[in-house]
Amino acid sequence: MGVFANSTDDREATGHEQVVFCQDKQTGLKAIIAIYSTALGPALGGTRFYPYETEEEALHDVLDLSRGMAYKNALAGLDLGGGKAVIWGDPDQIKAEPLLRAYGRFVESLGGRYYTACDVGTYVADMDHIARETRYVTGRSVQHGGAGDSSILTAWGVYQGMRAAAEHTWGTPSLAGRRVGVAGLGKVGKYLTGHLIEDGASVVATDVNEQALDWVRETYPQVDLVPDTDALITSDIDVYAPCALGGALNDDTVPVLRARIVAGAANNQLAHPGIEKMLADRGILYAPDYVVNAGGVIQVADEIEGFNFERAKLRATGIFQTTQRILRLADAEGVPPAVAADRLAELRMAEVGRLRTIRLG
Q1: What are the sequence ranges of the domains in the chain?
Q2: Is 25 annotated in some ligand binding site?
Q3: I need a labelling partner for 161 at 20 to 30 A (CA). Which of 42, 168, 195, 299 fits?
Q4: What is the third-level CATH fold of 151-294+321-343?
């Protein structure tokens, strides 16, 4: 995978506008900031803090994630482009105030082309540290004028997308009586579990973190827990909700998946191009991840204009209608939902982005 095209038909090239490598040896900071597009406005996307095996793996992840953010922000109706950042390292070992503030200075150096927020391995308190060095940060604590935990509306949006997929499949937007498999009971999965139980669904779940399992045993004892994701996807479930890391839908999992619907919070769920067709061929309806998990970015984007939770929640509720539109378009054009979603996102980036070429004076 590379950024630059070697020819006019180089499909391996990502086409990113800017990729920045950031290093501060004293704090141990190694970060990559990737800006895919600013056609709709400044790039917005979270910072992932993760112990990648190699620099190449970190680069591949940030390039994929930043592209996904551009499409997510476009379909969420935001006037924001797509970007993402990764900090390479184990947050339990090296995360500290000096490192986060050093990273904040690199964000500031981009002059507002990139706004950061929380992601895997980063939290609201981290954003408050980063914000001491840069203006271009969202997902801050309520005490500092921010929205707080963005996973609240991420889970709400996933639930809305799942309801739209249920209506498309079974004729009703309710999950009552359906069995939903939740893979990952972290920041988003735990809230999603609550929405599903309130709606009358039964939930089977798994997580690699024992603390997360203890939490669900105490909070929702009616949830069935299974040892791992393999056991989850091969169990008798109606809906599969991947809520951990990406690549959950791959050549090994799709053939054995028993669910009729996939709708979850994880980013980049399709391991490679072609998986969307495998799902369609098996009669599994895939609600594109970057559509249904946009509630979090809607929440943090609302901070930029002065956060109002009810306004942000109303916008996130609109994920239901957006998902409906994509599923109808997919049927009308005879393409998988992921392809229909891409087309709508690219259309908005092209049409609205073109307006920026009109001179204002």
Answers
A1: 18-144, 151-294+321-343
A2: no
A3: 42
A4: Rossmann fold (3.40.50)
Provide the CATH topology of domain 18-144: Rossmann fold (3.40.50)
Tokens of 325: 């539109």
Is the pTM of the predicted complex or chain greater than 0.90? no
pLDDT at 4: 64
Write phi, then psi, for 132 (nearest 5 degrees). -75, -10
Q: Please classify residue 169 by burial: count the beta carbons closer than 10 Å to its beta carbon, then call 0-12 exposed, 13-18 middle and 19+ buried.
A: middle
Q: 30, 72, 84, 95: which one is catalytic?
A: 84
Binding site annotation covers 187? yes
Say if residue 186 carries a ligand binding annotation. Answer: yes
On whether the CB atoms of residues 16 and 94 are closer than 8 A, the answer is no
Which whole-number Å values give the CA distances from 48 to 170, 267, 325, in the listed order? 36, 12, 31
Has residue 42 got a pLDDT over 60?
yes
Determine if residue 81 is labeled as part of a ligand binding site: no
* Residue 192 labelled as part of a binding site: no
Tell me if residue 84 is catalytic: yes
Q: What is the pLDDT of residues 112-162, one digit of tens each?
A: 999 999 988 999 999 999 999 999 999 999 999 898 888 899 999 999 999
